[in-house]
Amino acid sequence: MLTFLSSINIASILPYGILWLATFAEGPITLLVAGAGIAVGKLLPLPAYLAIVTGNLTADLGWYSLGRFGKPEWIQRITAKLKIDPASIERLGEDVQKYAPRMIFLSKMTVGLPIPTLIAVGLQRVAVRRWITLLVLGELIKSALLVALGFLYAEGIQQTYGIIQIVLWVFTIVLVSAAFIYFKFHKKNVHGENSDERFQKVDGLNGLERKVEMSTKKKNKGLVLIAAYNEEGGIAEVVCAAKTYLPVLVVDDGSTDGTARQARKAGATVISYRKNQGKGAALQTGIRQALDSGYDYIVTLDGDGQHDPQEIPAFLEAYRNGQKDLIIGKRDFRKMPKVRRISNTLGTLLFSWAVAHDIPDNQSGYRLISRRLMEVLHKSAESGYEFEVEMIVYCLMHGYPIGWVGIRTIYGDEKSKIHPLRHLRKFIQVSLRARNMMRREM
Among the ranges 32-36, 69-73, 221-225, 229-233, which has the highest mean pLDDT value? Predict the structure, then answer.
């Protein structure tokens, strides 16, 4: 090593640089070639070993970064199109979070599995500090073994690599088969718990579609969409009441309590965010899922009990009778707490002025949205409560009819998740932007 350091020049470094780059293209055979190069005196052991280890680790971090730059929404879209059970994907994600270090270490002992494993770990945003030690350890062990084999069998390197490749593929196949059997058995047990319920045997939106087909023969099919954040106490009751009319999808917006568990237990399909994204982002995720699954309309309501699911038939009747693209549940402001009554009244006046239309209740989240309107809502950049306000703007801009249904005004002692000053500032901004958008359309 001292001899190497004392005689460093471009010519002496070049072979190790090539070796470092070669690990990106073909790791195992590069390791064997490095061992053979050491055996015939063309390469020094320590520099060659460091080059291939650092090269492989750099490539591994690149694959992790690729997954890190990905979006979980992409997986949700793909699973919907391929009709894969979203609940299974969610459970798989939880397992990746839990077992990431062991999965990465075992994958390093195989052929072909490190790349998809690291991408999956990246997609799940598993912290590097949790698995980097086992990644380095696995790389050191695997590189040492293959370099040693290349050194011992320098003359028959191709035959040696063929044998090693067979051994690694056998190990890979055994590992994949074991994982497949585990997840299949685990899924079977989960579904077996609900075998007495008629429609619990089929989970996910695929199952929701089948439930609609089995329970109704209507041409139009709808979905209840609930964006929920920390609603463990009331979400189950809302889901149970709503699913008597339509299948239910709950988008859990990064809750820190048992919202997702309670919703799923009550019979809803659940999509969960790792972190809170905002009500608008959660609604847009549900809308994309409904579009991908072929629904003709959705009914949105809150999961905190402020919207009575027993009023869903009123929305369905209004939709069948008038084919409105947006039907909003109109509340009675007189029955609201004083502060909310004032803020909603002023907000209604401001927004009606902004869009030059009489909008009696612009902030009610109880709505029926047609497929035609859903298809244009992806243009909105709002991720918070303001998304529901912009929804009305897009409906007006496209000339889609709006309808209204009188609903109960329900307020308990629950704490609002809206920050008043921030919400007021955002609402004024949205109203002014709505006025500009409407003026451009005129």
Answer: 221-225
Q: Which of 143, 164, 192 is the last residue of a domain?
A: 192
Phi/psi of residue 276, each to 5°?
-65, 125
Q: Does any domain span residue 199?
A: no
Note whether 86 and 225 are same-domain residues. Answer: no
73 and 96 part of one domain? yes
Lowest mean pLDDT of 26-35, 102-111, 131-140, name the range.
Answer: 26-35
> CA–CA distance from 103 to each of 146, 210, 293 (Å)?
21, 35, 33
Count of domains for the chain: 2
CA distance 418 to 414: 12
Q: How remote is the C-alpha of 192 from its chain's centroid?
A: 26
The span from the CA of 397 to the CA of 400, in Å, is 8
Pick from 402, 231, 417, 212: nearest CA to 326: 402
Tens-place pLDDT, residues 9-19? 555 677 777 77
Alpha helices by DSSP H, 153-278: 157-192, 204-215, 235-242, 259-266
CA distance 345 to 362: 10
pLDDT digits (tens, 9 = 90+) for 111-122: 667 888 888 888
pLDDT in tens, 71-102: 666 666 676 666 666 666 677 777 787 888 88
Identify any residues that bridge with 223 across adjacent strands, giving them in sequence order.
Answer: 298
| C-alpha distances in Å from residue 129, one per residue of 100, 103, 136, 307 | 11, 15, 12, 44
Assess whether 94 and 63 both reside in one domain.
yes
**Cα(27)–Cα(55) distance, integer angstroms:** 9
